[in-house]
Write a structure and sequence with these properties.
single chain, Rossmann fold, 5 strands, 55% helix, binds CO-5-methoxybenzimidazolylcobamide, cobalt, metal-binding, Dimethylamine corrinoid protein 1
Length: 211
Amino acid sequence: MSKIEEVKARLEAGKAKLVPALVQEALDEGSEAKDILQAMIDSMGVVGDQFSKGEIFVPEMLMAAKAMTKGVDVLRPLLVGDTSSSKGTCIIGTVQGDLHDIGKNLVAMMIESAGFDVVDLGVDVSPAKFIEAIKESKNVTIVGCSGLLTTTMTAMKETVQTIKASGLTGFRVIVGGAPVTQEYANEIGADGFAPDAGSAAVKAVELVKSL
Ligand code: B1M
């Protein structure tokens, strides 16, 4: 079994204490950080499928999530580049009612590495909390809303519409997350959509140019 395959197997088994060392070993053997990250993202898909089939339950999903977070911590310095030139502040959070944060954290990391200062509001973020953060932060140019549940897509809609109706200006709003599509982003009035963390950073840079 290759080191990356070992990372995947241990992540899927929720071995949070073993995954960081295996990620480091994979790097030491010459694997690219982006390939290890993609392997871990694929593993979370496997975990999701096992959950859908009733083969595992919420505690196992949570352990896998912890293992992924620990693994990403090892990769973080390699994935985040030079962050010295600021393109403004990005406020990001997972919308109200939703506790999924791995994808949001990856998006935050890639947006930071694209040159933004990031204010991460965490998970279960109400529309009011987004507004408060936009008002309190300096030079906000991007607001990012993440959502993983079909049941919280309405919260995403409410968040975007509350931000748009607030009269606050000078920034663009990006949405994303597994159930979100470009069509949905258009429907709820978001300025941009991105399917993954890398393209979220590209989209953020593109949208800031249009300000
Ligand atoms: Co949950 N969960 N979960 N879960 N969970 C999913 C999302 C699910 C698809 C699993 C399944 O049934 N197959 C399903 C949702 C079904 C649906 O609504 N369509 C589900 C469910 C049902 C639930 C609960 C309701 C289960 C229950 O309690 N019965 C519950 C809800 C809790 C809540 O939020 N209120 C729940 C709980 C949890 C845990 C807490 C145990 C844990 C999350 C821990 C954590 O995040 N810290 C968890 C996990 C781990 C998952 C799966 C297995 C993995 C999610 C993940 O991290 N993926 C997930 C199955 C799956 O995704 N296949 C599942 C890896 C991550 C890198 O991808 O988050 O998609 P993702 O992010 C991507 C893109 O989406 C995009 O870029 C990221 C990187 O490329 N992206 C953006 C994300 N945000 C973006 C923002 C952007 C742009 C792009 O711009 C701002």
